[in-house]
């Protein structure tokens, strides 16, 4: 079973819509969870970092929550824009390192 | 302040050759992670170095190896290249400790022909 799972794999929404991306992980023994954005063929840009003791973090139109006990995190994007189109990845930090989900490919249509 | 830098940005090699990829972490960072991302696929963990030591290794054959230097920069070596090794290789760095944020470089695109 995948250690980190992201649902949905792809999402297409009209501009202006609020949306939620989901990340779930097995084994709640994590140090933190990080959300990243990746544009095609590029490296990853860190969006938000949530420590295991925290419930949520906010940056601009982005809000990430963490429920460690249930092994879930959500990334909420408010008032989506075409420039938000990218692949969004979550990663959990454990003793053995940083493990990624497969990502959600987001397309925001003008 | 400079971010994580990777070199070269692109690399073309012939099957059977060796490739060396380099990563310079953010100043003050002691951990370096390497990942492979084949076209259209997710990030596959390769190696993790921290303060000069290999901390963990992913499920890759021994021809994938690396090292971390005293200045915390790192090299990834891939021997006996195969066509399937063609991918974007990403390096990330973080500061000391397990609760710190990871930052990525822009990657090296390796093409094996």
| Structural class by helix and strand composition of chain A | mainly beta
First-to-last CA distance of chain B: 37 Å
- Based on CA atoms alone, the radius of gyration of chain B comes out at 13 Å
Give the largest interface pair and sizes: A-B, 25 and 23 residues
Describe this structure in words.
The complex is a heterodimer of chains A (110) and B (113). In chain A, 0% of the residues lie in helices and 60% in strands. Chain A has 110 residues and is mainly β. The termini of chain A are far apart. The mean pLDDT of chain A is 94. Chain B has 113 residues and is mainly β. Helix content of chain B is 0%, strand content 50%. In chain B, strands 2, 4, 5, 6, 9, 10 and 11 form a seven-stranded mixed sheet that branches. In chain B, a hairpin with a 2-residue loop joins strand 5 and strand 6 (53-57). Chain B starts with a strand and ends with a strand.
Task: List the keywords.
heterodimer, A: 110 residues, mainly beta, 0% helix, 60% strand, B: 113 residues, 11 strands
Question: What's this, in brief?
Answer:
Chain A is mainly beta. Chain A has strands at 4-7, 10-14, 19-25, 32-38, 44-51, 56-59, 62-67, 72-77, 86-94, 97-100, 104-109. In chain A, 38% of the residues are buried.
């Amino acid at each position: 079973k995948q250690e980190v799972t992201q649902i949905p794999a792809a999402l297409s929404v009209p501009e202006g819509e609020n949306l939620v991306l989901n990340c779930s992980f097995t084994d709640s023994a994590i140090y933190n969870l990080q959300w990243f954005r990746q544009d095609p063929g590029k490296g990853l840009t860190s969006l938000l970092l949530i420590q295991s003791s925290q419930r949520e973090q906010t940056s601009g139109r982005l809000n990430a929550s963490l429920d460690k006990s249930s092994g879930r995190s959500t990334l909420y994007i408010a008032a989506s824009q075409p420039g938000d189109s990218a692949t969004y990845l979550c990663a959990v930090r454990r003793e053995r390192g940083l493990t990624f989900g497969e990502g959600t490919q987001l397309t925001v249509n003008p | 302040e400079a971010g994580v830098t990777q070199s070269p940005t692109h690399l073309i090699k012939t099957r059977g050759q060796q490739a060396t990829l380099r990563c310079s972490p953010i100043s003050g960072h002691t951990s370096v992670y390497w990942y492979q991302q084949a076209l259209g696929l997710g990030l596959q963990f390769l190696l993790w170095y921290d303060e000069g030591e290999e901390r963990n290794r992913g499920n890759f054959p021994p021809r994938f190896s690396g090292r971390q230097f005293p200045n915390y920069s790192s090299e990834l070596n891939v021997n006996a290249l195969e066509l399937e090794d063609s991918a974007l290789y990403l390096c990330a760095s973080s500061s000391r400790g397990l609760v710190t944020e990871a930052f990525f470089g822009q990657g090296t695109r390796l093409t094996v022909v």
